[in-house]
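Lab manual, section 2.4: Encoding a predicted structure.

Procedure: take the sequence of the chain (120 residues), apply the prediction step described in section 2.3, and record the output as structure tokens. A sample record is shown.
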Amino acid sequence: MEIDRLARRWSELETLAVRQFDYFKLTQAQIRALPMGPEMDAVDAECRRLGGVCREALKPLSKLTPQTIQDASAQLAVAYRIMEFERGDAWPFVRKAWKFLSRSCCPGCGAAYAPKSLPV
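Recorded output:
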């Protein structure tokens, strides 16, 4: 994702600033004045913008109810991404996916996707 690429670029710029300057003792104004300051500001602004776009996109997604195993898998993938990289609230996605899985069976063999014996 673009936000991941930008985060890596920010890290590269920050590492460069640490090597060349006493970065962690600088004020925000001093950081902005560094050679990499304008790019760091641009990366930060774009990350914030994209974060807002992601949060807005998640609102309607969190209201969807899975109808197929693929839908449930997609919701779990979204939840994983949120928990792993964004530290946001993924539980609406997990709850809906679990609700679907706990009441669904494999069309081929009839086995429950989430057997009642699971400790939940």
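Check your result against the sample. Helices lie at 2-20, 28-33, 37-63, 69-86, 91-102.
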